[in-house]
């Protein structure tokens, strides 16, 4: 890099630096192009191997490198423009618009490029043009920065569809057969075919196929698709289409009966007292719980539903008296009495803010601090939660009455489950059901109730204190497994998910308090498509942990830069695998800032800056696939760890108990091949250790392996053979039973292995060696076979002579 004299500005010296910088920028661009070519070849190889997760990660890097290449090309032209007007920097005349735009663009974008020469040019321009100009350029004020540069720097992170498009282009270029998964917006025809009730359609819903489709999310339009599929996934709507209307009416009648039973006793209650009675306290707390929610959660409930007044819902006050439920409004009337008797000013949330510590008056005689960083930093208070009164939630009165009834009925039926996340779950679920078709939305309240109860039953352990701790710990372990560096960074900033600062707010309401409804519904589509929970597993919560892990991974670079002044630099969200140098260690006050900034970032997650919800779900799907592959590999290792002794033990037991192997012939052949390979390895080991020499010129054969020794011994026992040199006795004839064999003699007993002492601790190998030298197994097996044959022969003789008592079994045939 050309040296620069900061004292005197020399146009020729600066022009040389500009020319060198332009050449370096061109070289960087060529290097990225060559790297992009290699990356495309790697992606094609990964697609052919089926490694889609790694191919997507490389495609995201490739897209980001292409954007950076465009930026380098634009900066190269801007450096050339400054070189053409470098003479204007020597005088005091007004600068030309071309020089102003080029200088401002370089000052603004140089921090995003990987060029030391360009940073040197930036510093010289700042010194020559002044600090005010540099500050305006850095903040992109006065419209001096090139629009093309602003467009490149503001490029959003690659979305899921853009990554799939990149992969498809690479696959077509290199001749790889690969088709991307369908986007959830393109699944409408497939879903409509499954839900079709017309003639010629299937009478039963293919639930496994429906779960596979929902694993990618459901289309947002039309809105009636989502509530119907959710009912199918939770089992509140049967898979037999002809019973839909009957079962739906049965469930709705059951809900309306609950309303009559639980709301009728509210009418004769005495006026509210102070303090409130238990029932009045429950009603008032439910109303407060709704008012605590963010107004964004009621965005679909601000207006009245189109089907209101249709005359089909008995809870609607406009229906005829014959079907109207008069007690439906008892809850609203009671709440009005409670609010009228209570002092509303006392029911307000306190304001929560962060303030700097109180500073003591310094001693005037003390010298000023030599290091300005050592002096306390004066910061303005940061309001985390403003104070507000428990006013009515910003939604239509009809929806407010329905939500209060749902919460009250759930509270009465589940008095032990009073989780603070219940209202968030209910409001989001109810918001989806009010988008049903007109004939169904009239009963949205009843349909929501049964799905809500099923949902709480699935994720109920999350609402318990101990259960929440378990899943927060799982989230911490999952992020450590997926990205160890990010997990360590979060731990150092006190943002470890094992702490309930934000993870409980994520997991408890299933991200209902973190994501907008437009992003929450696709997340719930994927979670609800998971199988129902069992005694030992909960697939829905496991996938929720994967999604939360994906949220942290997509915010990787901003989380690394917490507490640093450059954390809001352009393009940080686009650098999932950042190439920026690691930040310096955080100072004590920066740790506090990092925690505050991290909480603000994770509490209101910028889903669009992370690539959109489809990109999050794509990352979560890759994590779930990796997790399942890791489990499969672990099972394979467990199977491989089953040693030779365990396999021999199993075969010996089958031989003794006369069992037939239930394995396929292919599996048996594989096992035999494995045993033969092990025998060959043992023989090779023995050959390496030395050959056996019997003292003669002829070499003795190698010693048999353990497998062959045990196999021969067991085979002799099963086939009634002996290792002795005497002849095998011929089997007795059926007409003349032979005398029974005598019990094992003392000599045979002496051949049994003596139990070893604890100090010796002989293994299976020593035991097998001793077993080879004895005929105990053969003797016992031969005796057992002869006894069985004798008994069967005697049993046949007894059955052949029913009238003769002499046909009974002889006394000497019994044991003893």
UniProtKB/TrEMBL annotation:
GO terms for biological process: protein transport. Gene3D superfamilies: Vacuolar protein sorting-associated protein Ist1 (1.20.1260.60), Ypt/Rab-GAP domain of gyp1p, domain 3 (1.10.472.80). Residues 701-711 have a biased composition (Polar residues). Residues 342-384, 653-766 are annotated as: Disordered. Residues 729-744 have a biased composition (Pro residues). It comes from the Eukaryota. InterPro entries: Ist1, IST1-like, Rab-GAP-TBC_dom, Rab-GAP_TBC_sf. Signal peptide: none annotated. Residues 220-531 form the Rab-GAP TBC domain. Residues 664-697 have a biased composition (Acidic residues). Belongs to the IST1 family. This is Unplaced genomic scaffold PAXINscaffold_187, whole genome shotgun sequence.
